Structures are given as C-alpha cells and as structure tokens.
Amino acid sequence: MENTHSSSDHPPFDESGTIDSVTGLGNERLFLRLLTEEFFRARERETNGAVLLIKIDDIMGINARHGRRGGDEALRSLGNLLKKTGAAPGNASHLIFRLSGPVFSYVMPDCSADRANSMAREIASETFHSDLFIERLTVSIGVVNLYEFFLSEEDETRLVRSIEQTALRRLETAERSGGNTVCFNSALADIGTGAAPSVLIVDPDQSAVEPLVFALEAANLDVTACRNGEEAYALIRAKPPSAVVCEAMTPRLNGFMLRDRLRANAFLGAIPFILLSHKKTEDFIRKAIDLDIRHYFRKPISITEVAGLIGNLLRGFGA
Prior knowledge:
Strand order of the largest sheet: 2-3-1-4-5
Helix content: 40-55%
CATH topology of the largest domain: Alpha-Beta Plaits
Low-confidence stretches: 1-8, 188-194
Strand content: 15-25%
Number of domains: 2
CATH class of the largest domain: Alpha Beta
Shape: globular
Distance between the termini: 41 Å
CATH superfamily of the largest domain: Reverse transcriptase/Diguanylate cyclase domain
Number of strands: 10
C-alpha cells in the first residue's frame, strides 16, 4: 500500500502544554498527534496497533467520599499502574496518556487484536487487585484496533477523531454494563443501541444445530443459519456477525476454506470462528491450527459448552 502520509506534511509540533499536571502523562493533544503518526505507520506497514481507553468507574463517588484530593490521588495511582504496565518487558513501545477527567489512553503499536484484548483484561484485573488505591477501584475499557480503519477515506483529522470516538463508544458500552468490563468490538457496542450480538451457524444438517440455535436465542443473541460455505461467505461479507459456528465439511465451500477466505481480510479474520465436525483427526487438527481456529468441537456437541463459550467470547471481560 502506498504511503501518502509523511511527517513533512505538518509544521513542527510544539510540545509545550502537552503534559497533564496531575499525572505527569501526556494529554489529549499529544495523544491525538502521536495516534496520527502511529496509525499511518501501521497502515503503511499493514500491521495492526490498538488503542485502549480506560476510565475509572464511579469517580464522582470517589470525590464525594474522599474529596478532590482523594480523586486526584486515584488518578495518579492509576497513571502509575499504567506506567508500570508500560515498563514491563515487551511493552517498551506502549504509550500512555491522560485525556480528560478519569479517562486514560493506552496505545499499543505493532500488536495483534488478541494481544490488545488480553492487555485490556490484564489492566482491568490489576486495577481491581491493586493496593495502590485509597479504596478498591475498577475500570471500564474500550478497545479499538487500527486495522478497522485501514480502508477509511476520511481526511486525517476526521479519521483520527473517528478512532477516538469509536473507542469512546465502546468505553461507554463497558461502563453501562456495570463497570469492570472490557468492550472490544462494535457488535458489543451495538448492545447499547438495542442491537444484539449476532451469530452465524453454518451446517447442512440444520436439525443437528437446532438446539444450539434455541440456546443462543434464549441468551438474547441474534442467530442466522445457512447450509453451505458460499452462502455463509456472502452473508458475512454483507453483514459481519459477532461470531461464526461452522461445520468442517459444509458443501460448496468447506469450513476450512471459509476460514481461509475470511482471513484474507483483517476485519473478517478477527471474527471468532468455532469449528464443528464428526471427525477430529490429526489432519483436521493440523488444518485448524494452521488457520488459527482456536475452538474445535467434535460432534455430537455439548450445547451448554458451546453456547457458554460463545457467551464468553461476546461478553468480553466481566467482573
């Protein structure tokens, strides 16, 4: 992909007024500047990066119980915890900012979507179990992967603001879920607007998966079923689901071929993919590993087990 962005496109950046006085971290002005640079670097190299927006839950209650000084201490403590996380081995390139109020940003260049989600869960867990705070704190976190915007045609300013606003919407979704939660995809964020996460089930024997359909619908998930891989691929392209459950030997395009085709697109390849089959041979297992299929169940399946896995995958991190 041709790089159309260069540091020479901008006048020299004045870094005065870019440090938050409470935490000593960079502020939102510096965050937007460095996010712009990281995004265009990632798009040029076709490598992912991620932005985590992290908000202290119930900051107003903390201020009411401990005063403004106590609230500032909570901000400094979370800032110190994030600095410690960023200083850990393997995290040297990570960037940390305080944006406004109780909201922080943690930017991860050159990372996979799975690593970003794992990091968000680590931060939520470490905050909950930390003894740095004047009381037990929890955080809500919204995660955005930069590859989600690689095809955007917005101008630079709007594009970077779109990344930030997407992360904020996911942060708000996590917060509405009760706090101490991570939201890492727009299907989950849609819950807040009345849309349920969706699951596509691909199996030529619809009677075999009918109990799974009932179980998922009972969990308030939007379920679509189809019988062959070509139809599934068209449905996924038209409206990407939150998760795919697929029989390995579907007609017209088998489950392995469907997964391979989805992986050609970074966004579609990130959709959780669950494989079902009466066969679980060494050859099939090797194919699944090569295609990064992490969930492979032998039929007949346990409806409780598969439905529970899907619920966990779509719920994100809970308290």
